[in-house]
Design brief:
The radius of gyration is 17 Å and the shape is globular. The chain has one domain. The protein is an alpha+beta fold. The longest helix is centred in the first third of the chain and has 18 residues. The strands form two sheets. Strands 4, 5, 6, 7, 8 and 9 form a six-stranded antiparallel sheet that branches. 22% of the residues lie in helices and 42% in strands.
């Protein structure tokens, strides 16, 4: 199932990001419920440990050897740099779309280098796992638009590097403090 305008209306969180016909209380409630579902679905995964660092992080998305890799550069609460890779194993980018301010979804035909991680929505359809990623950080002359990549994947793996990231995982080697 690829996200279309109709499916965005039915989604758990994307409808609140793209459609302006919801008030702030509805948005906050839906967003809180969605965050609880992420915690529940990924509680035994490394993904939940880095989840709080994702939003507004600088990213670069690319496809390598049958995997889709998101290189992430973000900061901890102490303003220390954190670098890690989110690796979607056996993954494929199914679509690159753009969502315009009016909610219209169209194919993204030009090269886009995402600059910031926005939001995501994980879902399953016919036993296959999907994620739609909304990316921020680019403007065009005709107004804002948000690129949206939809991926099909089998597993998520986190590749950690650097002292500050080890703080996320409670690693006290190399003089790193535990968060």
């Amino acid at each position: 199932m690829l996200l279309t305008y109709g499916n965005i209306k039915k989604s758990k969180i994307l409808k609140y990001i793209y459609l302006a016909d919801y008030n702030d209380d509805e948005y906050r409630k839906a967003f809180l419920e969605y965050n609880k579902s992420i915690v529940k679905d990924f509680e035994k995964s490394d993904f939940i440990k880095i989840y709080k660092y994702l939003h507004d992080a600088k990213i670069h998305l690319k496809q390598i050897n049958g995997n889709v890799v998101i290189k992430v550069n973000t900061y901890s609460e102490e303003k220390k740099s954190i670098y890690f890779d989110i690796i979607f194993e056996k993954a494929k980018i199914l679509s690159w779309n753009t969502v315009k301010e009016n909610g219209h979804i169209s194919r993204l035909n030009k090269k886009y280098k995402p600059q910031e991680y926005g939001y995501e929505e994980f879902y399953e359809d016919n036993g296959k796992k999907y994620v739609s990623l909304i990316l921020f950080g680019n403007k065009i002359r005709k107004g804002l638009y948000y690129p949206m990549a939809t991926l099909n994947y089998e597993n998520i793996r986190i590749n950690r590097s650097g002292c500050a990231l080890k703080q996320c995982y409670g690693d006290t080697t190399l003089g790193c403090e535990v968060l």
